[in-house]
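queue> holo job accepted (2-deoxy-2-amino glucitol-6-phosphate)
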Amino acid sequence: MCGIVGYIGNQDASSIIFEGLQRLEYRGYDSAGIATLEDDVQTRRAEGKLVNLQAALQRSPLHGSLGIGHTRWATHGRPSEVNAHPHRAGSIVVVHNGIIENYLPLKERLRNLGHHFSSETDTEIIAHLIEEHYKKSKRFEAAVRAALKEVRGAYAVAVICRDEPDLLIAAKLGSPLVIGQGEDAYFVASDIPAMLSHTREMIFLDDGELVVFSRTSMQISTIAGTPVEKLTKTITWSPLMAEKGGYRHFMLKEIYEQPRAIADTIAGRIDKDERSIFLKDLHLDAAALKAFDKIFIVACGTSWHASLVGKFMLEKLCRIPVEVDIASEFRYRDPIISEKTLTLVVSQSGETADTLAALREARGKGGKVVCICNVVESSIARESDGIIYTHAGPEIGVASTKAFTTQLVALFLFALHLGKVRGQVDAELFSTLIEELLTLPRKIEEVLGLDEKIEQIAKDYMMASDFLYLGRGNQYPVALEGALKLKEISYIHAEGYPAGEMKHGPIALIDEHLPVVVVVPENATAEKVVSNMEEVAARGGKVIIITTVGFDEAMAKADAVLHVPLIVDDLMPILTSIPLQLLAYHIAVLKGTDVDQPRNLAKSVTVE
Ligand code: AGP
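queue> job finished
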């Protein structure tokens, strides 16, 4: 949600922090600010996009080699300059990502102690609380620790103090925070891309940990003060990976990265000769896997659509009952979970609050949790019993694309592994499915070759005010995903629906103004979907079809047809979803919306 960047070193803090905030723009924000310390603290803040903050910095530059910066996505208090971070109270300046749940009683108490507040934010109370402790002890680190013990809720904070020009303090509870170790410099940020152009050596703080940086050292401990040893991880992502790489938008780059992302997600996990799958972070042996008698898959948004596809894979290959839940529903319905229940949690960011809460619900009831996640050491990854990382690389565009298809690959790998362990997948089937899986990158390249044709279809239908997406079986989640892609970046209303349900109501919507996208690869239910499509065409509806090469049943009635290569049915959703990503992308570009940062949306929804 919000983005934090802190720097202490011997370079110009303001420019380093500003560049870091630019790399975090994808997190969604509505205001931004930077504070640096040289003699005194100077702060520049601006509402809206970073270009406004840049203008403020050009008008009145900041100086100093110590500073903190922030991009804010409003939770408490409207988007405005006065609510933008950093927030200051006396000697103390703070930036914060998260929500302080007890900020109102703390604010009341501080008011009674004579503190005056200028903003509507919960963050400002952190600055005043630290200041209240600091003015008594004049000990900066102790004041931060004392204040953080009093707040409840989620935070990632970075703090500087006017009287301590050689100290930067940061702490984490519930919101992500990463440390970067540079040449005679330290960085702290909400996410990896903010620091990649300076260092690849990073440390991921855990909840309840605090770090004190000087210009030459770093001390990590618990909030209470117990020293903590942390591993440094070398991040292989190049800065370019987090750049657009020549594409017009991050989303288009990430759509085209899917062959690579899927190849990377498969790499090192298959031994064809041994007919084995290696999921090194799964931490569940064959005995544990055999003991499960129920699987939940829990996620939000696009990750929930991937979960719906995963149900088909797991029930078919493992013959175990699978129930898919939207995370914000799962966590409040008191699900029935035992030690024989496995809960799969699917999340690109690994920080989605509802999904993290669902994970805790499942573990709290004694179940095992395995996450499928794209961000190393994210909160969800760190709280899971086992992890299957997708290796999609940073997904910057708010609309999830390569994360979705790599989640499907990760789910397939897990289903194959579990099916083999449980004796449901024999050697022959295993080899066949592995061979099919290995053809994916090439076949996706073929699908990407449809781009120009899809752009033309986008031009033909971009003025529609509504779209309907239809699919059956494991293509129904693809219909849901295609509809979500379109509505979240083009702002056109779109709905995904089971094709067989048309006659139970939605067919009343059909007229010549309603484009209907039908996802119908040649499979066991294709004939039925074709008849659903004919019902639409007979009523004047415009039909756009995604089907497989060689399946030309009744295609004459379609207004546009896109053919994808054949592949085993379990993996077909990967191929059929990509044309829908491109259709949504091109319509959004034609409509002139902010494709990478659509209005009202954030890349990682870290609040409820
Ligand atoms: C999908 O394009 C959206 N960005 C959104 O639905 C997203 O999938 C959802 O918020 C879940 O995010 P996560 O995978 O990071 O948990």
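queue> The pocket of 2-deoxy-2-amino glucitol-6-phosphate is lined by residues 300-303, 347-349, 352, 355, 398-400, 488, 604-605 (CB under 6 Å).
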